[in-house]
Amino acid sequence: MYSLILKDILIQKKMMGFTLAYCIFILIAFNSPVFASMTYVMGAMASSYLFIQGACAYESKGNSEIVLNSFPLRRSEIVGARYLSVFVFMFLSLVIIGFFGAVMKGIGLPFPQRYIGWIDVLGVAVTLLLMSSLYLPLYFKFGYIQARFFNVILFLLIFFTPSLVKQYYEENREKEIFQTLLLFLEKSPPWLIGCLITTVLLLLVYLSYLFSVRIYQHREF
Q: From residue 157, how far is each of 21, 28, 93, 151, 162 by CA, in Å?
């Protein structure tokens, strides 16, 4: 499984250079107060997802799935490697944009306005793991070419769902369920909230993984 993850990284050497340039561009272009709170999240999220899409695209272009399934590998290992690569790409993207942000801030440039923080890491994790958990079962079911259509829907959901949820909350904030939730959030320490969110995310990823394994085991090449 380690070799499969390493393969996904090595075949994207060109993407690494693009990611470096893209992260610097994001730190400079989104330096306004309006976007300052989301600069690191947008940069790391987009970079991570491009890495994931790149790995899937290269595998589809080179018919690597047929080759991999001819090796003595369990299909669950192939699926597991793809899911673990999501965490690897997320870590690489956070390190890259966090490093450049720290260097640019440290030498006194007017951008970015702050260093990366744990809220940024949590924001990237929530968004990326949610999108990956929805996308990868579709990828293993239909393949990269057909699954690209669903990417448009996923991006629309990711960008529009928060505003819809916020609107719904504003219209129903007096309901008991929201009052109870707000009271819980106010009384709970940040570490507890972080642990709960992490647990929910990992459970979602695990269920998505099980679903993908079941799909991939019945797929014919």
A: 27, 27, 22, 10, 9
The rounded distance, in Å, linking the Cα atoms of 24 and 104 is 9
Cα–Cα distances (Å) from 199 to 132, 192, 206, in that order, read 16, 11, 10
**Distance between CA 46 and CA 27 in Å, rounded?**
13
Instruction: Kindly provide the b/e burial profile for residues 51-83, where b requires at least 16 CB atoms within 10 angstroms of the residue's own CB.
Output: bbbbbbbbbbeeebbeebeeeeeebbebbbbbb
Half-sphere exposure of 179 (CA within 13 A, CB side): 4
Decide if 83 contacts 75 (C-beta within 8 A): no
Whole-prediction pTM? 0.84
Outline where DSSP puts E strands in 104-151: none
Q: What is the pLDDT of residues 12-66, one digit of tens each?
A: 877 788 888 888 888 888 777 767 778 888 889 888 988 898 888 888 776 777 7
| Cα 118 from Cα 124, distance rounded (Å) | 10
Statement: residue 95 has pLDDT above 90: yes
Q: Is 219 left (phi over 0), alpha (psi -120 to 50) or beta?
A: beta
| Alpha-carbon gap, residue 108 to 10, rounded angstroms | 34
